[in-house]
């Protein structure tokens, strides 16, 4: 009888502990759900489209400037959003100070606050003081111009130079000289590479996603490019 009572008592203790754990688990679960719900309630989701002033619903790129304004590249214009309204920049025929093309592929805001807009025909740097754009194109007679006028992507480096991925190689903008260095430019459609994305890793190596594989760009002790292709 003693052993039966002791065993029964131990079983009761074990059952009570199990029930306590279950209750604790349910309590923690409810607290977690309430916490997540509270976090979600902090965000205000709002659908913004052409009915709100956006120039086009196809968004290709989004960046924020130092004033908190959002710049959006679309298939029909560059948009600046201040939280209340949109300002739209489109190509204006015969106006050389307007954006070179209304089809925007890429937007970049550099460390100095300049807004760059890469289009299907030309690269543009916005001047907020004059509310104008400076255009950059490829020129066959100028080796310091773009490798190609179709801009796809961009990345600013720590020293301030900007790499622009184009339909034919990379155009590296030297901000001190206000000109470009051509890199990986092909001489024909067979050996040309369009650059779809640019990434810099922790070891300062540059990775280029192209239509013909991945290219890794490292730097030797003389800061010259060391290129390796993965196809």
Descriptive labels:
231 residues; alpha+beta; four-stranded antiparallel sheet; 1 helix; 17% helix; 38% strand
Descriptive account of the structure:
- With 231 residues, this protein is an alpha+beta fold.
- 17% of the residues lie in helices and 38% in strands.
- The chain contains one helix and 16 strands.
- It has one helix at 2-41; strands at 59-64, 70-74, 77-81, 86-89, 104-109, 115-119, 122-127, 132-136, 151-156, 162-166, 169-174, 179-183, 195-200, 206-210, 213-219, 225-230.
- The strands form four sheets. The chain has a four-stranded antiparallel beta sheet, with no helix packed on it. Strands 5-6-7-8 form a four-stranded antiparallel beta sheet, with no helix packed on it. A four-stranded antiparallel beta sheet has the order 9-10-11-12, with no helix packed on it.
- Strand 13 (195-200) and strand 14 form a beta hairpin.
- The longest helix has 40 residues, at 2-41.
- It starts with a helix and ends with a strand.
């Amino acid at each position: 009888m003693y052993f039966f009572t002791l065993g029964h008592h131990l079983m009761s203790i074990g059952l009570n502990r199990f029930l306590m754990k279950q209750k604790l688990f349910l309590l923690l679960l409810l607290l977690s759900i309430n916490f997540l719900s509270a976090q979600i309630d902090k965000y205000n989701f709002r659908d913004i489209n052409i009915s709100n002033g956006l120039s086009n619903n196809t968004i290709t790129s989004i960046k924020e400037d130092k004033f908190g304004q959002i710049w959006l590249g679309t298939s029909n214009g560059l948009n600046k959003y201040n939280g209340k309204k949109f300002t739209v920049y489109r190509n204006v025929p015969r106006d050389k100070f307007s954006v070179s093309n209304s089809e925007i592929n890429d937007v970049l805001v550099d460390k100095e606050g300049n807004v760059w807009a890469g289009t299907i025909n030309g690269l543009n740097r916005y001047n907020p003081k004059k509310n104008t754009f400076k255009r950059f194109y490829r020129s066959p007679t100028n080796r310091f111009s773009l490798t190609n006028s179709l801009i796809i992507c961009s990345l600013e480096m720590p020293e301030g130079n900007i790499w622009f991925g184009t339909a034919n190689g990379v155009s590296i903008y030297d901000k001190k000289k206000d000109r470009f260095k051509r890199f990986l430019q092909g001489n024909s459609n067979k050996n040309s590479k369009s650059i779809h994305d640019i990434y810099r890793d922790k070891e300062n190596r540059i990775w280029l996603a192209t239509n013909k594989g991945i290219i890794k760009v490292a730097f030797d002790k003389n800061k010259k490019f060391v290129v390796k292709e993965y196809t």
